[in-house]
Amino acid sequence: YGLQSDLLNSDFRLFPEARVQYELLSKSLFVYTEVGGDRVLYTLNRIYSENPFSNRSLLFENNDIPSNTKYFARIGINGTLFKGVSYQISIEGNKQDGFLDFVMADLPSNGSNRSLLPRFTAINMVSLNAQADAKINEKWQLSLKGELRSFDRFLSFVPESNIGLYSNLKLNNQYSVISSIRYTGAREYMMLASDLDSYLTPYAINPFVDINVKLNYSLNTKLGFYIEGLNLLNNNIEFWQHSLITSRCLNIGAHYRF
User: Fold this and answer.
1) Are 45 and 52 within 8 A, CB to CB?
2) Residue 258 CA, distance from chain mean position
3) What is the SS3 assignment for 45?
4) Which of 30, 54, 159, 234 falls 20 to 30 Å from 175 in CA-CA distance?
5) Contact, 187 vs 202, CB < 8 A?
6) Which of 213, 205, 214 is nearest to 236 (CA)?
7) Residues 214, 227: contact at Cβ < 8 Å?
8) Backbone torsions φ then ψ of 50, nearest 5 degrees
9) Given this model, what pLDDT does residue 203 score?
10) C-alpha to C-alpha distance for 229 and 211, rounded to whole angstroms
11) Neighbours of 99 (CB within 10 A)
């Protein structure tokens, strides 16, 4: 347990931190509960990292960068099903005063190109998270992760469901393969009207599956090479929260450890 404090623009906040865990079954089932919170300042670097298509709105030109204060409470279980397989399931409720999403707009200053403008919304959210990790053998590991979220406000470009299967396979001392299959649920995005003060009817975005594969080759302990294929199903999706897909992509590169 603990207590954190934060001061931003004369706004002082306290964030309690506490976690209690109890063992129900020896080494196989634990139940826990925790509370906490934090505050994040939305710098331009953070905005563009989450969405490189963001347009500099008047909000940023005036250097009035908002923040997001979050308080949460969580309850969950975790443990081991059998040798090599672990799991965790949790339900979290949180309150945020500046959740970041993006809305579409036709700005006169941007010609015929549409812009994505950041928006900061006060929301209450409930999320269900589940994860299972399996060590098949010394060379192959699998992870299954899923999340369901419910919001009390309409959010733009933000899915309510995600699920992914992740694999890490070590072929030998030199080759390894990392792959993932991820499902992103249906979403909608909001379009600002021409007066930039009201919204048009939301537009639907279909769910999709994203498949990625990466082959690594280690020449020695310092030098390695890789080839990876991204968006192998060639989804025609440019942006969803915190992730970017433009088209099917093949990357080839090297990495060196000093």
Assistant:
1) no
2) 30
3) helix
4) 234
5) no
6) 205
7) yes
8) -80, -25
9) 87
10) 8
11) 20
Residues 6+ apart with CB under 8 A from 58: none
Please state the length of the chain. 258
Return the closest-CA partner of residue 118 out of 172, 217, 49. 49
Q: What is the dihedral of CA 246, 247, 252, 253, to 10 degrees?
A: 10
Closest CA to 93 of 69, 138, 64, 123: 123
For the record, the structure tokens of 222 come out as: 């310092």
Locate tokens 């690594």: which residue? 216
Spatial separation of the C-alpha atoms in residues 96 and 19, rounded to whole Å: 20
Q: Half-sphere exposure of 44 toward its Cβ, with a 13 Å CA cutoff?
A: 10
- Identify the pLDDT of residue 226: 96
CA dist 229 and 226 (Å) reads: 10
Rounded mean pLDDT for each run of 10 residues along the chain, 258 residues in total: 78 88 89 94 79 62 76 96 92 95 76 74 96 94 97 91 96 95 90 77 86 95 93 71 66 92
- What is the CA 158 to chain-centroid distance, rounded? 10
- Note whether 74 and 33 are within 8 A (CB): yes
Bridge partners of residue 116, in order along the sequence? 54, 104
Give the count of beta carbons closer than 10 Å to the beta carbon of residue 37.
19
Instruction: Name the pairing type of β-strands 187-189 and 223-230.
Output: unpaired
Which residue's structure tokens are 């964030």?
A: 15
Kindly report the number of other CB atoms within 10 A of residue 100's CB atom: 21
Neighbours of 105 (CB within 10 A): 19
